[in-house]
Fold this sequence. Notes:
The protein is α/β, with parallel strands linked by helices. The protein has 2 domains: 34-141 and 297-358, D-Maltodextrin-Binding Protein, domain 2 (3-Layer(aba) Sandwich); 144-294 and 367-427, D-Maltodextrin-Binding Protein, domain 2. 40% of the residues lie in helices and 14% in strands. The chain has 15 helices and 13 strands. It has helices at 2-21, 43-55, 72-81, 94-102, 111-114, 171-185, 187-194, 203-216, 221-229, 308-317, 320-329, 349-361, 369-372, 375-390, 394-411; strands at residues 34-39, 63-68, 88-91, 125-127, 130-132, 135-142, 145-149, 159-160, 259-261, 275-279, 293-303, 364-367, 426-427. Strands 1, 2, 3, 6, 11, 12 and 13 form a 7-stranded mixed β-sheet that branches. A 4-stranded mixed β-sheet has the order 8-9-7-10. Strands 4-5 form a two-stranded antiparallel sheet. The protein is globular.
Amino acid sequence: MSRALAALRTLRAFLAACLLAVTAGACAGERDETLVVLGPWTGDEGEAFEAMLNRLDDGTGRTYTYQGTRSLRETLVAQLEAGDPPDVAILNSVGELTEYARAGRLRPLPAAAAARAYPPWAPPLAVDGTRRTYWVPLKVDLKSLVWSREGQSAASPEWCVGLASQATSGWPGTDWIEDILLHQAGPDVYTRWATGRLRWRDPRVREAWTTWADLLGDRSKASVDQSLTMSYVGTPDPADKGGADPRGLLGSVTPRCTHEHQSAFIRYVYAGDPVRADPSAGFLRGRSAHDGAYEVAGDMAAVFSDDPAARTLVERLSGKTARTLWRSEAKEELRPFFPDATDPQPTDPTGRRIAAILTEKARTLCFDASDAMPPVLRDAFHRAVLQYFGNPTGERLDELLGQLDAVREDAAPDTGPGRLPASGVCAAPGG
């Protein structure tokens, strides 16, 4: 009888433990088999990426779920503060990624993924005395582009400007200034400025701002207000009853503008339209010696959890199989650009021309400077661009550059371990 009571008590204890741990699946020796990927793509882009994730099933029993948001930084910060970070996050700011690596939030990548961390998108960082790779580019974009309708003369362009972008308004203007500085002063000066080693009040940086204002020319108050409130993708097409599909700035600005400075991703807006993309160097009053330099951006995957499967997932996401699947799932005008020339690239005519610049023609690729800056400085840069656009006077510019220098000194005064190296901004194309 005593043995029966003892067995019953053991069974009760086991069942009680199961009840306490049931949400974690501990009774069956199970754990959460789903890896969470947080990323910036929504709509058709998000659906294509999620479809690729679903097709990556390798029979291990692990599944993947994708969370797409346009408020990526805010969402990630909230999850980190709640102690519930995603397993993998995809960010376009190496400044943010550097901060997370230095704070011990990121896990170094396995060798196979690190081997695909082509420059300048993913420089190794020296954290805790060891140089390691903490993120890898999944897709990349070319920013040094000017868009215009076929047959439109480049002699006297009327520039389209749309600076609104929800919480990150202003970045289309920072792209202008970055691209101008790169072509006027060259990659070395650009790198020093992007990494906080050059003052904002340096004459070369100041000249980039005034060149932008000169290129845009005199603008009426109505035109300025329109640019400050218009989205960078323009207004919805009136023919679209749902009001969802934008028609691009070239079809949205009144009176009609002729040229737009924008990243390669905008090609999806002009799919099917007679719109041409050209390298920006010829429009920016730069030195011909710097024509082979291009500003680029990227979406990088980093691991935020201790689950080894998350590191394996990033390795797979950066591999050829995932890229082939992603390309097959995306609409033609949304097919991503990849950093390796041997990877599948877009097949539409505009996409092929842009891919050739990224992987074959460019001598130097320089990562988006504001995305290389600490987030607090990047955000101040965004705000300053909006303020200068509304009042492009020399006095106002001097005030804004002084404010940016103050933020720079507070945000990046050190050269300690883990800081983004100067070599991590501009480099010859890799892959």
